[in-house]
Amino acid sequence: MYMQEFERFLSSLDLKAYRDTYRPIKLVEMDLPKDIQAIILMYKIYWDEKRFISYDDFYNEYLATYKTPIEEFRQKITMCEDCFYRGLPARIYRTWASIVTQIHAGYVAESVFGEGTVAMSEELDHNGADFQVHYKNTILNYQVKKKSFSREVRKAKESKQAIPGQFIDIAYDVPSEDYFVNPRKKNGEFKAPYLRFIENTELRRFPNGFVVFTPDRFKTDKHTLDVGAKIV
Fold first, then answer.
1. Contact partners, residue 196, CB within 8 Å, separation at least 6
2. How many domains does the chain fold into?
3. Which of 38, 102, 195, 227 pairs with 30 at a CA distance of 20 to 30 A?
4. Span 17-26, pLDDT tens digits
């Protein structure tokens, strides 16, 4: 199982530095053509190959892999080289941060349902499933949906129902950093978003700010299938 190893990786990342560097940059916001989207490489590296590399290393590998089509796209949209290559890493980072959180959820689910029960791929993603669980002759298509007022959140997928199985949304609240720095109101009571978060046993927050699912989120579904009931 790779859940703990992946958690150590996520915990080691300087999330604040990434946010400070990339959040202000909004230069490359147009839709990227499929041949230069980074998601296939993300699944390949972090799920298939189990190589837990930093975002900087990932981005360098992304550039090396798609160098020619990336440059062709830049020329097609007639964006200056400086603007494009300052904006592209910020654009790719926003997708990367969302996907590595989603991949972690896949590793957590696998720790609950068992080794080899979880599948993740660009094809499943295209059909609305962030990851798929095969357990006791049942297929569960999980969709990770992040609740946040931030514009940085990756747009939720639509369920195209082109793949078999039941679709299950797993949503998680992401209180802003301010709630963790100053969790109490003037009267000493916890602020509502912070209280909701700490009372939710299905989520945890690493010291660097990553919010992830705990095994509790999937134990209920596994128990339901173990007793022969249907997940509703």
1. 173, 175
2. 1
3. 102
4. 999 999 999 9
Residue 231 covered by a domain: no
Compute the distance between CA of residue 96 and CA of residue 14 in angstroms, rounded to an integer: 14
4 SS3 class: helix
Residue 65, CA distances (Å) to 36, 59, 101, 154 in order:
9, 10, 23, 23
| 68 and 172 Cβ atoms separated by less than 8 Å | no
Rounded-to-integer distance, Cα 178 and Cα 114, Å = 37
- The residue range of the domain holding 93 is 3-226
Query: Token pair for residue 153?
Result: 């959140």
Give the tens place of pLDDT for each residue, 107-135: 999 999 999 999 999 999 999 999 999 99
Specify whether the CB–CB gap between 232 and 169 falls below 8 A. Answer: no
- How far apart (Å, rounded) are the C-alpha atoms in residues 214 and 109? 9
